Structures are given as C-alpha cells and as structure tokens.
Amino acid sequence: MKLSQRRNMRLALRYVAATLLTLFFLFPIYWLFMISFKTADEIYAYPPVWWPSSIQFSNYLVLFKDGDAATVGNSLIVAGVSTVIAMFLGTICAYSLARFRTGGENLANWIISQRMVPPIAVVFPIFLLYVWFGWVDTYFGLILLYTAFNLPYVIWMMRGYILDIPIALEQAALVDGYTRWQVLWKVVFPMCRAGLFATAIFTFVFAWNDFIFALVLTRTEVATYTVQVTHYFGGQSNFWGKISAMSVLGTLPIFIVVAFMQKYLVRGISLGAVKG
Amino acid sequence: MADLKITGLHKYYGSMHAVRGIDLEIPAGEFTVLVGQSGCGKSTLLRTIAGLEDISSGTIEIAGEVVNDLAPRDRDIAMVFQNYALYPYMRVYDNIAFGLRARKTPKQEIEEKVQRAARMLAIDHLLDRYPRQLSGGQLQRVAIGRAVVRNARLYLFDEPLSNLDAQLRDEMRGEIKRLHQELDKTMIYVTHDQIEAMTMADRIVLLRDGRIEQAGSPLDLYERPATKYVAGFLGSPSMNFIPAQLVSQDNGLAVRLSDGALLSLPADRGNRFSRHRDREVTLGVRPEHISRAADDALRPGVVCHEVTIDLVQPTGSRTYATFLLGGVETVAELKAHDVSAPNETVKLALDMNRVVLIDPASEEVL
Ligand SMILES: Nc1ncnc2c1ncn2[C@@H]1O[C@H](COP(=O)(O)OP(=O)(O)O)[C@@H](O)[C@H]1O
Ligand SMILES: [Mg+2]
C-alpha cells in the first residue's frame, strides 16, 4: 500500500471512531429531547419510539401554564448574579494576591482549599444560620452562598491568569498616566479575557447545576429548576414528560452559553504578548 | 539646573541591598547612560526614578520637586521597557496613543502627535497592524514612539536594544541618539553594553554592586579611569593588566615586569608616580596603545619590547595579536598586516604616555 493510501485509511478510521464516540455521548441528550416531545403513550411504548409521530409541545405548555418554568428563571437569576459578583470580587482579590503578595505565599493555597469542602458537610450548618437570619428561600441567600462558594475558584484561576501577564505591561500603563483601577480595566482584563470568560462559564455552570444547596435552602419562592425536577418524581408515578421538558429547559442555557463562549474556552489569546 | 537629583538613595529587596547609596545629578537635556554588569542595580535605580519601586532611604527630586511619594503617573516620565511592553490586543496606533489618552488629550491632537512620531520613526505605514505582525526592530520603534509622543520631562530607557540583533542594534543606537538631539529632552539610558554607553552617552555613570564606580564623559572615563574596574570595563578588547614593580631608572622611573623587562616612564609622568617608587603596581595597557615598532626613531615615551606572538585574530581593519608580556596573556591591536602568523617574533612599541598604573591593593588608579 502506498504511503498516501495508508494515511487516508488512518484518517478514515479516526473519523469513524470520532463519530461513534460522539453518537455514544449524544444519545442520552437526544433521548431526553425526544421524550420531551412525546405523548405519554409514546414514552411508555415498547419497543421504544425513536422518533415521535408528531412533535408535541404539551409538556412544555404545562410547565409554563403551571408556572413551573419560572424556576428556570430563578436559576438564571441566582447563577447569573452570583457569577457576576464572584467574578468581580474574585478578580480583584486575585490581582491583589498576584501583584501585591497579599497574605504572603500561602494565602492563595488556603483560599483554594476552601473550595474543596464537600457541600453536604456545610449545607446544614448554613441552613440553620439562614433560618436564624431569615434568608431561607430568598434570592439573596442563594446568591450569597453561590458567590461565597465560587469565590475561591475564581480567585485561584484568575490569580494564575494574572501572574501570566508580563508585569511590564502594567508598569508601562502606570508610567503612562493610568491609575491602578484603570490598569485593571485597560490592561489586566483585556490581557486575561479568555481566562475571564472561561472562569465565568465554570462559575455559572456550578451554580446552575447545583442541587444540594438549592434543595435545602429554598422552598417555593426561589426554587431552582434542579429542585423543581425532583417534584415530578411522584409516589406512584413519575411524570416523565414534565421531567424531560424541564431538563431540556435547564440544559438549553448551558448550550447557548458554551456555544457563544466556545472560543474563549480555548485559552491562548494573550500568548506572545511580550517577546524576549 | 539639575533636572534630576538623587541623594543618598538606598534600595533593599528584603535583605538584598540592591542600591547602596547613590548620589547623582543630571542636568536638563543630558543623555546619561547607566552602565554596569548584569545585576549591579541599573534597572532598580531606573525603576525607583520612575516610581515603580519604593525606595528604602534617600530622596529623588525631579525639577526641584521631591517625588519620593508620587505615583508613577504623577512624575511626568516616559519609559521604554526592555521587552517593549506593547499591548497585543491594540493596534500600533492605539499603542502609541495609549499614554496620550490617559491624559485626556483631544482626539485631533492625538492624531497629529501619533502621526508625527510615527513619521519620525518611519513606522507610519504600520499604524494599523497589531504588534504580533511586526518584526523586533519595528516593535522597538513602536515602543520608542509610545514614549516620544508623551512629551514627558524625563525619558527612561531600560536596555531597549538588548533583544535586537547586532546590526539592528547599531542602527537603533544612532536613531535614539538622533532622537535625543531633535527632542532635546533629559534621557537616562540603561545598558550593560559598554559600546552602547560609549557611543551614546553625554555622560556615563558606571555602576558596580549598587554604587557609582565613576561618572563622567565617555572619553573621560576611557582615558582617565579612576579604578581598575572602570579601566577594564570600558574598551574592547579590554585593557591588559600586567603585574609589575615601579623602580628607579637613571634619574627617572621605570616599570619592571616579572620577566625582567624594564619599561621607562616618560619624565613628566615619572614625577607623578615618584612617591610610589619601589612598590608593586599593576600596569594597565590598552591594546591600541601597543603597535608594531617602526624602524625609524620612536616618539618620546614609547618603549620597545620583543615578543613572540601566540595568536593572531584579524578583524579586517585591525588585527588582534596575543602574546605573553610579563608572564600575562596580553592583547595588542595592530594594523591589519602587522603580524601574519603565530610564533612570529616581533618588536612592539608600548606608548608609556597612555598607560595607567594601578595600586594592586586598593585597585585604584595612581
Ligand atoms: N523584585 C526583586 N526582588 C528581589 N531582588 C531583586 C528584585 N529585582 C532585582 N533584584 C536583585 O537586585 C539586584 C539588582 O537588580 P537589577 O537592578 O535588575 O540589576 P541590573 O538591571 O543591573 O541587571 C540583583 O541582584 C537582583 O537579583
Ligand atoms: Mg536590568
């Protein structure tokens, strides 16, 4: 066999493998979407129905009519607001750690260790605290918690990105007439834009996917969609249509976020900033 | 009037004493080069002037105002960094305009100034590019352009040419000097390269271990070094140092080398050294003060000595010849065809008017 043929062969094999793997991983998502469009009969049908006879939106309509879909809105609010706050505070803290050696060499390590705490170990003490303060089932309570829980991660990640910025870029701006705050906006943020977006995505996804905190700390007012889904697991019957429709609603924002931010997830915008 | 005045400046990094008592006055409009080996504290000194490092003690005055506690942006300084410090996400135009924008300059004025600086540095065709699309020499011009548009009181350069290749470095050296003549600004330029220091400086400040070893005009330092360190630092190839003794000869003085050779000092210099008679000295001879002895009569103060050449290194215009003198490897800078091959025995002439005598203990020039 000629060399070029062998190379083509190998390439073909690689595509086949990649396709199979993709199908394997996409199948549950496909199935989830399909269920959400099926009628109850089709959901329970055997052999399984691979493609619903007609696309049904009734499962979704029910969610919106009953107001259950609002829980997705709650998720958006708490995840979005806590991400913005955590990113802002965390980046400032990270800058301080990176550039002013705040807290010496070990503070950064200590901060990230906070993130390793298992949620289940702290959620009940926090619950008692929140009852005391009257923060249970409030936006404020959840946002505060997610912000606090994500801060160490943001600080740790952003500190790494900031340390990678050649310090001369900041010093040049300081000499040129900018204040520290302006240097943050004009130099630090643009230089670690990719890192900012990547970190923000992970921060958002953590809050979005959280179940345990939301389960314990919410009731009805600010229940998030992850908590809402569990309400459809009934005593005698599970409402698969509702479960899948709610799950789709919960998955879509993540798809959208990742699709728009994909290029930032691949780091490397600031490489080669300084030669030498 | 001094534009910059530094008094009793010390800088510690933790327990590391980087700058150890600097007193320095730089007149307005002067091009001063801080030169010294890597790690001697040049950058640290420059950065304390810019306000990028706190100082441990002493004062820094710019135009008569103590700036110790002023933030960098309030010192009216422009600085060119070693690694260019250009913003990769901004076009060349915006990089150059960056400092003007900080000072809320009107748009029209920014446009004019950027264009003028770009023309001056021959980068006006690059204004729409990003830094990653430029070569090293172009990046350096942009970095300089960024400082030039600022119209600051004081310009600082920290080894701006050290990332460029030799040819480009020669070219930029000339350009920066020309820029100084055009702008007529006070400039402080840091380098470890003695050739850069010699060619560019109005005044050289030679630093060693955080102190000023000697300051003065380039030729002043070259011809009248105060210490062995200065004598050896400036000049390429460096000055030869030969252990010797200062002895009486007839009614004058002479230098006796370890191999017994006796080199007489000219009478006018002899007087100056007479109180060091019969002492150990180090004889310092620059390579260009050794030449092939001509057959005709020698000039006064020039002595002859016969040596066997070990190594011949032609450079084209000149030829470096290495040989043993007083037991020490010595280099002479001869005319291109003065020697042709090793092991040749030739008669060389040492210009004793130009040699220096150094006290081996204190390493000071006598
Ligand atoms: N940020 C710093 N922390 C600790 N030591 C430093 C720091 N910067 C420089 N030094 C030390 O101070 C001395 C002078 O450094 P520097 O001014 O950079 O030298 P130069 O520019 O002449 O090569 C060196 O020994 C260097 O290791
Ligand atoms: Mg340096």
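The first strand of chain B starts at residue 2 and ends at 13.
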